[in-house]
Amino acid sequence: MTDLPRTTDAEAFVREHATWLVRLAYLLTSSREDALDLAQETCERIWRSWESVVAADDSRAYAATIMTNLQRSRWRRKRPFEIPYEDARHDAPARTMGFDEVDAIRQGLDRLSDRQRKAIVLRYWLDLDDVTIAEALGCRPATVRSLLARGIARLRDVLDDDSYDGRPS
Amino acid sequence: MSDEWKRRLDALAAQAPDGDELVDRWQRGRRRPSETPHRRLAPVLAVLVAATVVAVAAVGLSGLGGNPAGPAADRVAVTAGTAGDPPAPTAPGSDAPVSARAMTVQTREVGRGRLVVAVPVGWRAETPHCGTITTDGYYFWIGAARACRAAPSPGVVSVRIEALSAIPEGRPDPRADRVENGVAYGLGQRRDGIQDVAVIASAQEDVRIVVQGPPAAVRDVVSTARILPDGEITVPELTMGVSGGLPGATAEPTWLEIEKRLTKAGLRLDARTRGGAGAGDQRLRVTPPPGTVVEVGSVVRVDIVARR
Prior knowledge:
By secondary structure, chain A is mainly alpha-helical. Chain A has 8 helices and no strands. In chain A, helix 1 runs antiparallel to helix 2 and helix 7 (130-137) packs across helix 8 (141-159).
């Protein structure tokens, strides 16, 4: 039996969402190399679980769950400290924030717990609801709300920011 | 409010690698599992190919009266399958050879003083454990290490950057009998025979760069060595000092020492404390990172941040 339909569909999914996958991985790792590794592993897992991906209500949320689960095991491995790239190497044409501001976000995320970081990325970058995030993190929705509140509070401390009122949206 | 967080996360996410890079990696890994380069070797192979292209370009420029010792290309376009690849396979269900796809390799220069070599953009400034790094990368070294020094893995490629004046005399360096872009270097082999070693030393720049790894990778990194023109300099190492630490470990230098190093390089200091730092375990974050090429007179920012 040929594997062609799976190959074609999974390839199309990866091609269409490649940038999104790498960006999600980068937000979870703060490392370009680790992000590529994590995204690549996720693609492999997506390909192997393609039937489940297409059967999911939201295939991107399903892919995000795969990635956060993979990240859970990767996070435990000892990771060498990575010095971020300097400003000149991050000149994105559409960027509206300065390097300092972006770097502060990176540092803030780095100082969160693994679960707080994932909860914040899944909520505020992917706009997932509490239930979906809870499934991805393997916890209850109430725990997600707690992770978000504490994570954002900690981020605010790091960023010295008053733009957040403490309530998860 | 959540839009504000979204905007901030978007800005950070925009610094991620291109999606095309992921697609290329994934397809190579899935279509040719037995031929996929090991993660540690992949960037080295990229440098190998890139260096070949740079060398060819340099020869071409030379023939046209250009400067063959000019800056290494920041972005080098190469076609997969041109660097000794086996015959191009075809993807399942497709007659198109994989080698028909083009990929792009980026390098950047790192070094000390005005002596630099090009390394893949993805290489990190590693922190060596027991004097040995376990993944491809570059690192600064001041000779202090715990007594658990281990042999490197054969496939790992490393670039060690150190001050020549800090190295004891009488070291068994290979004789500097080769020249690349006007830079002399010596090529040898580790005593255990598992890796080649190239040593580039310049008393004028007070720098010694040691490249270790598989022979081809070492030669290709060394082939990119050059002396920066006047007006350009690398950011000095600022996070390690040789006094005040535990035996066998490094210590953070004082602000005075940091400023002195920067002034000597013709750079200016912007010192900051952030993130609740001030008590407890801290570390220094240097931007641009040590080893990066900048213009003389640039400002180097040093943050004191709390260690995670």
